[in-house]
Amino acid sequence: MGSVKNSSSTSRKARIEEMRRAQQSRERRNRILAITASVVVVAGLAVGGVVLVQSQSDANDKNDTASDSKASGHFVTGQDGVKTWKGTLTQNHVTKAVNYPMEPPVGGDHSQAWMNCNGDVYTKAINNVNAVHSLEHGAVWVTYNSKAAKADIDALAAKVKKTPYTLMSPVDGQKDPIMLSAWGKQRTVTGASDPNVDAFFSEFVQGKQTPEPGAPCTNGLPQ
What we know:
With 223 residues, this protein is of the alpha/beta class.
């Protein structure tokens, strides 16, 4: 009997030991799986973060890169000397600089913010994308370069200040000393006393060419 009991006890201890080893083995396996899963998750987050940062960087690069305007066509000069853009002048709002096919531009994609154009005179260059939005609202933009006479600049500034839906600023890259622009319209004038100044203002300040007549020329950008 004694030997039977000893045998039974030994067998039970062996089973218990086997079960303990099996349990320890499962615990080790579970720890390894947990560690592996954690490593995979962390690696995935790291890769995802890199991809997200890179995507944001690419998006910012695209926004910071100047794009060509969707404006296509050419100017046709009328008998009155006014040049009319024949072609497409798109009106999309963009967040980047635009390379316009004319200088100063007379239309095309532009910033969501317009320049104040309620008789505003700017003594420094302004952004084309903001000025084009002002033209969309029906403003006339008076521009001049370094070849313009100071007397003409002063006289035109005084006229602009008295005329709602106009603005004035220097544009060094333009071809002629003094130019007038509206949406899709442009002409050169010889000076402040040129009668074509009044004629251009009369026809194109909030004229028929205006894409958004009545839109504001205030509450925009001051410079």
